[in-house]
Write a structure and sequence with these properties.
Layout (H helix, E strand, L loop, with lengths): L12 H11 L4 H13 L1 H19 L8 H12 L5 H4 L2 H24 L9 E6 L7 E7 L4 E8 L6 E8 L6 E5 L5 E5 L2 H8 L3 E8 L12 E6 L1 E2 L1
Antiparallel strand pairs: 1-2, 1-9, 2-3, 3-6, 4-5, 4-7, 7-8
Helix pairs in contact: 1-3, 2-3
C-alpha cells in the first residue's frame, strides 16, 4: 500500500508509514521521501525511532546467521597472502603471465553462467502490510521461510469483547486457508503448517477477519475482513 501522501491520522498515516519504513517494505521513491522526512520532521523521526524499538522484539526471535568459515578463509587469503618477491615486480615475464592469467580468469567468469547456470535461491523473508479501507485494524507481517514462522506486529485496532482476529492465506480463487488465531499483544508468532509454506513462499495474499473467540467454527471466515495485504520480498 502507498502511504507517502497519506498523512491523516485516521488512515494510520504517518504512524504506519514510519512502521513500513522500518520494516523495509516501501518502494524506493517512498523510502527516499521517508528519509528526507526523518531529517526535516522531528515528529516523524520520533515515530521511526519508536517503531524501531517496537519491532525489535520480533526481530530478536530470528537468530543471527554466521557466514560460512570458508568465506573468512577466502578473505584472509586475499587480504593477507604473502606478497611476491621484490624481483618479480621488475620482471616482464611476471607481468605477461599475470595478464594471461587475468584474461583466462575473465573468460572462465564469462563462460561459467552458461556452463553451470546459477541456482536462484528462494526468498527467505517476505513482508506484508495488512490494512483495509474503513478499518482501523493494521498489522505488519514478516514470513520467515527458513523457520516456517509468521511474525506479526500489531499497529492499531482493537478486537471486540468475545472476538478474536484470525489470519488467513488467500490464493487466487481458492477458499481461504486459516493460519491460526492471532494472539493478543503487540507482537505475536504463528507456526506455519507444511501445506501452506510453499504457497506463502510464492507471495500469497494475507487477510485478517473478525471471528468468535477461539476462531472460526466453520474453517472459513465468518466475520468481516478488517485487514489484508500482499506478501512481498524485502
Amino acid at each position: 500500500m502507498t502511504l507517502a501522501d497519506d498523512n491523516g491520522p485516521e488512515g494510520g498515516g504517518d504512524d504506519l508509514f514510519a512502521a513500513e519504513y522500518v520494516l523495509g517494505v516501501l518502494a524506493a521513491d517512498e523510502r527516499e521521501i521517508a528519509s528526507r522526512r526523518i531529517d526535516a520532521d522531528a515528529a516523524f523521526a520520533r515515530l521511526v525511532d519508536a517503531w524501531e524499538a517496537h519491532l525489535s522484539p520480533m526481530a530478536a526471535a530470528y537468530p543471527e546467521t554466521e557466514p560460512p568459515i570458508r568465506v573468512k578463509e577466502a578473505l584472509d587469503r586475499r587480504l593477507f597472502a604473502a606478497e611476491p618477491r621484490a624481483g618479480l615486480w621488475s620482471s616482464l615475464g611476471f607481468w605477461r603471465g599475470l595478464a594471461a592469467a587475468a584474461i583466462a580468469t575473465l573468460a572462465i567468469y564469462i563462460a561459467l553462467p552458461y556452463v553451470n547456470p546459477p541456482v536462484v535461491e528462494p526468498q527467505t523473508r517476505l513482508v506484508a502490510s495488512l490494512a483495509a479501507e474503513g478499518s482501523d485494524v493494521k498489522y505488519l507481517v514478516v514470513y520467515d521461510a527458513v523457520r516456517h514462522d509468521v511474525g506479526l506486529s500489531h499497529v492499531s485496532g482493537e478486537r471486540a469483547a468475545g472476538k478474536d482476529f484470525e489470519l488467513w492465506m488467500i490464493e487466487g480463487k481458492n477458499a481461504p486457508v486459516s493460519m491460526g488465531v492471532i494472539p493478543a499483544g503487540a507482537t505475536a508468532h504463528l507456526a506455519i503448517p507444511p501445506a501452506v509454506r510453499e504457497k506463502l513462499a510464492q507471495g500469497a495474499v494475507l487477510a485478517v477477519s473478525v471471528e468468535p473467540a477461539g476462531g472460526s467454527p466453520t474453517g472459513q471466515p465468518t466475520g468481516p475482513v478488517v485487514a489484508a495485504g500482499d506478501l512481498k520480498s524485502i
